[in-house]
Amino acid sequence: MKLKGKVGIITGAARGIGQATAYQYAREGARVVVCDLNLEMLQETLDELTKMGADKLAYEVDVTDRQTIQQMVDDVMGQWGRIDVLVNNAGITADAQLKKMAEADFDKVIDINLKGVFNCAQMVIPQMIEQGGGVILNASSVVGVYGNFGQTNYAATKWGVIGMTKTWAKELGKNGIRVNAVAPGFILTPMVQKMPENVLDMMKDKSPLKRLGTPEDIAHAYAWLASDEAGFITGTVLSVDGGVVL
Q1: CB neighbours of residue 49 within 10 Å
Q2: pLDDT in tens, 92-114
Q3: Closest listed residue to residue 243, CA positions, set 168, 183, 174, 155
Q4: Percent of the chain having pLDDT more than 70?
Q5: Locate the Ketoreductase domain: which residues (predicted)?
């Protein structure tokens, strides 16, 4: 059990990669803190964690609302006394070509995908510093490294997350805090599953492995990076993309 005794917070845990990560952390022995925009959305995750016998807490958190984040952090500290891992997974898309993108859609994606990561990290680092260490894991994307048609806002946030990851790794290493990012490729999340079959086939063909990734593929990466096995890894961006960018 790679994460036995550790307390891990996972944002955007109601579905997809966040949900799979919550399950993987529970399997690895962690105490799991799941949060999303509303508790009703989290019910499926909570039900499965209960079946697994996991120690769990759930919170209604908007990552753009610093007060709700702070309330969660304070409550977790009151209940379990430490925070070992933060997985900044919450994110959205609002795609459009540059010439058609609404300013409101640009701002919303920046607020959640970029500033939300900043907000959550800033709220947990005092606890990690006080306890002598911790791990922050940020969701980037291959889109953040290579760009993607119609995703000006999304690509900007995922590139920005890489910059923050490397900066925080330099700033916080002296406090025993490791900071890394994961850059998924084409992942078969519920949102992607709704795409036309021909689009899914095209995405598969771009990968040397000839398949889409699963949320579990990313969850395994998040679990390993949070574990002591990755204890000398910080400031890196781990691509989990099936070789799609080769």
Answers
A1: 23
A2: 999 999 999 999 999 999 999 99
A3: 183
A4: 100
A5: 6-185
Cβ neighbors of 99 (< 8 A, separation 6 or more) are none
Q: From CA 133, how far away is CA 149, in angstroms rounded?
A: 39
Which positions ≥6 away from 181 have C-beta within 8 Å?
137, 138, 139, 140, 161, 162, 165, 236, 237, 238
Contacts of 53 (CB under 8 A, 6+ apart): none
Q: Does domain 7-240 have CATH number 1.10.260.40?
A: no
Give catalytic residues, as residue numbers. Answer: 154
Give residue limits of the domains in the chain: 7-240
Mind listing the pLDDT tens digit for each residue in 124-136? 999 999 999 999 9
Closest alpha carbon to 131 in 64, 167, 81: 81
pLDDT band per the 50, 70, 90 thresholds, residue 192:
confident
